Amino acid sequence: MKRLKRYQYERYAILCRDAYPAHFDHLQYGFSELGRRDIKNRWGKTIIRILWRDDGDAVVVFKGSQSVWDWLLNLVFIPSRVDAPEHAGHVHWGFQFLLRQPSRSASRISNRDTSTLTSAQQADITHSIEENQLDGVSVIEKLESCIAPLIAQGKRLSFTGHSSGGSMAIIAAEILEQKYPNAIKRIVTFGQPATGYWNFKQRYRLKSKTYRICCDVDMVTFLPGLPFLFWHVGELLWLHNDRIYHNMPSLVRIIRVLTSWLLRPIAYHFMDKYIRRKDYFDKH
């Protein structure tokens, strides 16, 4: 497995953070003016953004929970067989439902004077105007219809997502990898709960391309909280005490965090803590 580089980590982290607000100017991140497609859920809220450069690859950003309804879906952890051509095991029902749900359409700008708008504002409106009817196509089907032309152009895809968006990215990646082998370059998730059962972990095809980022004692990463029933996939990168730990077992993570909390008053006395604060003096 290749290491995730710092610039890649920062890029995906920023895209996941900035994907939540309703307004999203993709041009400021260097993507092409027409290099964007938004996919909306049944409520008309953007759930996936597909971004690309004309001369580069594409990034697919999956949003996490945005409503009470989304949070309730996190509790429905009965098994659901992955909707892939070949058997890929079972995953959390709620996370797969986010991909199965019908999607609302996004219409193009029409009958509107946009001459006074910047190109970024026009592009944002283009991908934000909602119709009032569901078009009968699921989120995953619409995602496939958007990425198929990009794959045909030779673009490779990076998937990234935060929280339940990370779980969506994992499931969608497995489904699409079976249909378009080697089209996915990597998957990077942040604060992602465990997605599948043991048989999904065993069959998941993108283990060597999946990076799961966890910060300190992010409790969501321990959910659904049923040991030996739900399993994570890919490589864990645990960010703790200014270091990156690889594939640290959950129990060890909990013990280390608790120990760190107990020893924190003493740890702040060490000189390395003072040295790390050197940047503060640049601000005064």
From TrEMBL:
CDD domains named in the record: Lipase_3 (cd00519)
PANTHER family assigned: ALPHA/BETA-HYDROLASES SUPERFAMILY PROTEIN, FUNGAL LIPASE-LIKE DOMAIN-CONTAINING PROTEIN
UniProt superkingdom: Bacteria
Name recorded for this polypeptide: Lipase
Residue ranges of domain Fungal lipase-type in the record: 59-225
GO biological process, one term: lipid metabolic process
Species whose genome carries this gene: Enterovibrio norvegicus FF-454
